[in-house]
C-alpha cells in the first residue's frame, strides 16, 4: 500500500517511492495496522518551513475574526465527525470510544478551539499597554513565523499537534502551525488535518495555516528547531527527545515550551487519613488507574507519615491495585518500561504492595503497580525514587515522622502539580504550613483535597512548572488566554503616528471588549481624547 | 594595598591573601587606579548562593511593603550620596559628572528603584486571575531563589547589577540579588552596595537580600549559572560572554534574560530627507555621538535611498563627525575595537565619510567614524556589514532604489529598536508600509520621527527583542511592571482552602489597588460574595 501523504503548503503530497515509512499498531490487539506513513525528507521539511513562514506573515496581518472563524469551523468539523474520529483514535491508541474519546476528549478539544477563537476575537492575550504622556504603546504580537507543535502519545485530540492546546494557542495568536503527528496515531492526525484544511477554505485563511508531517530523522528535527524560518516550538513528550529539541532551539534563542516529566506528589497528612483512610485510598486508586494511568498529572508519588491510618490506606489501595485488570497502553514499549521501573524500585529498596492482574489478552497490556518505601530509604537516593512510572504505577513514601517527611519534600524535583489532603478540623494545618513552602515552588499547581488528574480549561489553570515539568516557570500550556501569551512577541510603538498603529493600540477600543492598561488603569474604554 | 572585600551573607569579607586581584583604570587618563579587587573563589561563590537562597526563601514570605521600604530607603541613600557617587563613577568610567551622571543617570536610577517599590506595594506584576466557578486562582510569584544580575560597562548606575533595572525588578518581586559588579567600575558598585546594606537594616529585610562580588573565573560563572540554588539571571553585556552564560542556564531550564548586541537601524525615507536633510543629519549625529556612542540603543545602521537629499544628509553628517572631538570610552579595549571595525568595513567595501579628531590627550579615546556602503555591496555580505560598532560609529547604507532597500531590510538581524523618519505629507507612506512589516518583527521597539537613544522608564516601554538583542521576545528589561514579570513563576491554587490563599488571591482585595482578572473582568474590587 502507498504511504499516506503529508500536508505541505496546502496540498496532500506523497513522499517519493523510496522514502522510509512506518506502520502504527493497534494497542488493543498488538497487531500492526495496515496503513503506512512516510518519514519526511530534508526537502519536505524545507517545504514545510517555507510555506509556514509565508502563511505566518499573512496571518500576522489577518483580521483576528477570520482566524477565529477558522478555529470555529474546525471545531464544527471535528464535532460533526466525532463518531468517525473516536473510532479511528480508539483503534490507534487503545483508548475507549466511550466515555473517554467521545464524551470527554473530543468535546474538550472542540471547547479549547472555541475558547481560543473567542480569545482571538477579543484580543486580550495581547495585553495592550498605553502610556499617553509619553505616547508609548506596546502589546504582544505574533512572531511572524510558524510554530512547530509536537504532541504526545497520550491525548490523540486534546494535545494533538494538529488540534490540541498548543495548536489552538499558536493559531489564535496569528501563527501557522507545522504539526508533527505522534507516530502512534498518524491516521487520527491525518483525518484531523483534512478537517482543518477544509476549515481554512471556509474561513479564508491561507491553506498553509496548518501543515502536517508524521516523523523525521532526529537530525532533521534538530535542524528544524534551530531554523531561522521557525518562530517557536511547543513540545509535549519524553524528556530525552525534549531536551535535544530544547538545546537546538536555545542555541539560537528561539522560544520553546516543553512538558516533559512529572511525578505529581500527593501528600496525605495524618489527620486526613485518620478521618477517612479507606475512602482516600479508593479516591487515589481511581485517579491513578484512570486511563491506564497515562496522564501527565497522574499521581505517581505519595507522601505519608507512618501509622495505623497509613497502613489502612495502604491496605485498601493495595487491594484496589491487586484487583485492577491489566490495562491497554498506548505504544508497545510502555508495559515493559513500567515493569522495568517496578523492578528497579524494588532493587533500590521499595516493596511491591499491589500488582494488577497478569495480562492474558493480546495487546500492549500493563499490570498496575503500587509500591512503598520508607522515608529513610527514599532519602538514600531521592533521584532514583522519583523516576516517572508512566502508566498505572505509584510509589508511597512512608516517612517515620514529620521531620523526615519535610526532608523528603526538600528533595522533590519539579512537577506539574502538588496535592495536599489534610484534616477538616485543622489538626494538619501546622504540618501543611511547614510543607507547602518547601514544595509549592516546585510545581505549577497546588491542590487541596483533590486529585491532580483533572485539568480544567479555565483562565486561571496552570499546566506547567519549573523545568523539566514545564519549559519556563512563567507560562502555562493550558488555560486561555494565558497559554496564548507564550507565542507573543512584546512590541512597543514609540511616537508612532496614530494612523499607523495596530487597531488594538489606537485611541479607540477596536471591538469594545478588549481590556487595555491605559495610564495604569485596566479598561475597555477608549483613550480619553 | 589590601583588596577590597566582597559583600557575602551580610558581611564584608576579605578574600584570602593569595586570591587573584585586578585593578580598574581611569579612562580619562588611561592610568590604573590604586584600588585592587579580588576574583571570587569557588567557596565564595558557594557562600553567595547559600546566603542568597536563604534570603530569597525569607523574602518570598515577606510583606511587599517591607521590600518596597528597602527599595525606597536605598533610593534615598543614593540620592543623598549623589555627589560622591557621581565623582567616583566619573573616575572609573570617564563619563562626565554633569549632566550625565548627576543630572541624568543617578536620578533615573533612583526613579527606577522608587517605581519598583511602588510596583511591589501595588502587586500588579503578579497579574492575579480568579475563576470563581472552578475555584481556580493563579498569579505570578517569586521563584524562591536568588537572581544573579550581571551588569554592563556603560551604565554604572542605571544598569548596575547592584542598583539598576534588573536589580530593581528582581528585588521588587521578592528575590535576593547576587550582583556581579562590572570590573570597570567596582568602586562605584561597592559604594552602592554599602548604601544598599544600610537600607536592608532600615527596612528590616535580610542583609543577604543584596550581595556583591566583582569577578570570577569563566568556569565559576558557568557553574553558578547552572547551579540549582540560583533562580534566574539578568545579563547585559557582550555577546560572547552572554552566549556561554545562556548555554549553562538553558541546559538546566533556568530563566535567563539577555541583552547582547544591537545595531538599531534607522531608516531615513526620501520624503523626510527632502524636507530637512541637514536637520536630520544633525539630529542623527547628536544621537550617535552622545556619550561617545556607548548606548545599547545607539543608531549604528542607517537606511537610505540614493539621491541628492541623501548626499546632503551625508555631507552634513560627515562634517559633524569630522568636527567631533575624540571621546573617552569606558575600557581600554574599546577604541581599538572601534578602529578595527572601521578598518574591516572599509576592507569589505564601505567608504569612510567622516572621522573625528585624532586623539592627542591621554586616556581611552576613540575617533568617531561615519561610513557609507551601497545597498548592492551590503547585500553581498549582510552579516559583515551588521557588525556592532560599539561607540561613536555608524554605517549608512545607500540603496539604489526602494526594491534594493527592501532587500536590505530582509537581511537585517534582530535589534532593540527600529526607527523610521518619513515625510509629513504622506509621500513616504507607501514605502513605510512596505518596510515596516519586514523590519518590525526584528525589534522590540518601533519609532517614528525620533532617535532611539532615549529609553523612558514607562510601563509601555520595551527594551528587548529577538535574540541576541534580547533573551526572550515576550519580555522587556525596562518598563515597570512589565520588566518585573520576567522573574515570576506562574502558580495556580486549585481548590485551596480560603485561609491558605496568598493575600492577593483571597476574595478581599488586600490593598484596594491591585488589579485582578476576576471571571474575565479586570477589577480592583473584591470577589463578589
UniProtKB/TrEMBL annotation, chains A, B:
Signal peptide range in chain numbering: none
UniProt keyword list: Oxidoreductase
InterPro entries linked to this entry: Ald_DH/histidinol_DH (IPR016161), Ald_DH_C (IPR016163), Ald_DH_N (IPR016162), Aldehyde_DH_dom (IPR015590), Aldehyde_DH_Superfamily (IPR050740)
Domain Aldehyde dehydrogenase: 19-424
UniProt cross-references to Pfam families, sorted A to Z: Aldedh
GO MF assignments: oxidoreductase activity, acting on the aldehyde or oxo group of donors, NAD or NADP as acceptor
Domain of life: Bacteria
Record's protein name: Aldehyde dehydrogenase family protein
